[in-house]
Known about the structure:
It comes from Paraburkholderia atlantica. Belongs to the bacterial ring-hydroxylating dioxygenase alpha subunit family. This protein is α+β, with helices and mostly antiparallel strands. The chain has a domain at about 55-185: Rieske Iron-sulfur Protein (3-layer Sandwich). The protein is about 25% helix and about 20% strand. It is built from nine helices and 14 strands. It has helices spanning about 5-15, 30-35, 35-50, 170-175, 180-185, 210-215, 220-225, 225-230, 255-265, and strands at about 20, 25-30, 55, 65-70, 75-80, 85-90, 105-110, 110-115, 120, 125-130, 150-155, 160, 235, 240-245. The chain has a four-stranded antiparallel sheet, with no helix packed on it. The protein has a three-stranded antiparallel sheet with strand order 3-12-11, with no helix packed on it. The longest helix is centred in the first third of the chain and has 12 residues, at about 35-50.
Amino acid sequence: MSEKRSAGEWREFVSGCLDFRPAEGVYRIAREMFTEPELFSLEMEHIFEKTWVYACHESEISNNNDFLTMRAGRQPLIISRDGAGNLNAMINACQHRGATLTRMSKGNQSTFTCPFHAWCYKNDGRLVKVKAPGEYCDDLDKSVRGLKKARIASYKGFVFVSLDVDGTDTLEDYLGDARIFFDMMVAQSPTGELEVLPGKSTYTFDGNWKLQNENGLDGYHVSTSHLAAAMRSRGGWPSGNWLSAIVPSPFWVALPRLKRCILAHLRGEICQGLAIVRTGSN
């Protein structure tokens, strides 16, 4: 469409894409939900560029001057631990002409120098050097020309960023009850600390975030497409088999009941070693 849709038109569009008839066992979503460019732009603007987004684990930038790069929505970011050990999130673009400061995925350095005009920034975002300063006006104030920053916070070592610099919601408020799962992961470590092992695989595909999310939620394909990995984590139930992956399924205990079980476990009211509970066998 050449003209932007109004809020009412978007509600009508989304409603028209949904075909939910539980009594008939029909749960369909039109493929336009996955392909509409304008909808994607709105999702980037109002979801990924307005809320807290996972960036990394603190163990990935454990040393002073460590950094890595990532994206929050459409914005490229540098996540750094500066010389004082503080975490920083900065837009990966020079404030002079917008050139990308670093194309490295990770590293260790105390400054970032623009490859275009050599403006130099500390890894906390401060502009510390300008090439040929005499060519600029006398009132060039480096202190107000640092890198644009995002909010950054860590919960139990898990680092999140938010591009909404005027936001008032804390990371803990945003995570809400999901903190329980972070607490459980950390509680499995005798020292209360976790470490992300180095190495990763990166894949590029034609599709937006919902296609990847749809695949991640699909546990039915695991024992076929990922057979070798699945066999290493295969176990047995009294009836049937299971894989040690958490996937949505009508056989899983409803979240409120599971939450009560988890809370009881964390309070030491049930035996050590929380087992995943199912309501039936298949």
